[in-house]
Amino acid sequence: MNNQGIFMKFRNILRQSAAQSDGNLALKTAVKNWKNYHGTKWEHAKNIFSEKLRILSKQLADQCNFIACHRLRRTAQIFNLYSRIYDERTIKYVIEKFGHTFLRNGKTKPIYMLFGASIFQWDQKSITDSEIESVTEDMNHVTHLKDRSADAHYMDSWESLIDRPHLKAWRKAIPETCLYEYKIYGTYNDVPARAFYDVNLDLEFRKHWDNLVIKLECIEEDRKSGQEVIHWVVHYPYPMYSREYVYVRRRNIDVENKVMVIVNQATDHPSYPETNSYVRVHRYFSKIVIKPHTTFDENGFDYVMTYSDDPKTSLPSITYNWMASTGVPDYVDKLHSAAKQLHEKPWLKRTGKFYDEENKTEVPAYQ
Q: Where in the numbering of this chain does the START domain appear (predicted)?
């Protein structure tokens, strides 16, 4: 083979190699473009699917909420119907059987809490602004509470129970009942008003300084108004059952008039129905107004506390008088001591300990 033939053959080999390389490059480019196209398309499809799923989930939640409310209304209607047909004992039996069947395995409370969130009506059961203002008015009569000889008749309808320089207590019969409304006036010079206010609100710390507390917790809160629903169980001496309270609590600090107000009012809550374990107290209210001598954070303040409850027990009048004359001073002394310790030793709140000054011992929560 001459030189020209060798050259032509070598050129053909190079052309085939170049064509093969161009083909591989074209194939790679096509695969890459295909991947990019379908990747973008898949991402777009995924976003559309996610948005559709979000809309579907919202519609499903709205529908479930509608169905739940409808079934709750139907349940209430059925309950009202059967309450007309059957006696109370039969209804209680049916409800208990329902509870054992559907609300066992420790799931009772979350289910009740779910219902409670949709049933409890703050607009109907909350403490109003006018009630807060009426409690504030009590502090306008402090002068007459301090000195009964003052030219006023504010307490003429009240019976005096305790008359001490720093503590006074009265009671007044509630018409058409066997109950009394109690009013307490007190003053302290060794602790700020804010500490006394805080210790009245601190549920966790109260479990340590009040040895009659069995249960005490906030079960619901309205963030808009700052009001709370409290569940409180109080120990009663044997053989009486302990008493149970469910109440709404509202607090307010009036900077302009320099007063602090706390109002508690009995209510009911679907998460905490009555049981056989405790006696539920339905008639209960407590109102306290605190006014500092100077500022909220300096030592010295006056307070007026008004309260009433129906413990649902028949006790002789002499027993009630004894409870008022001894129980009230004991309670306010503990309240004052707790406020003082919380102010002087704020770390006690973190450790959960309360020091009993009289017995020189640390007091744990009630067991």
A: 158-344
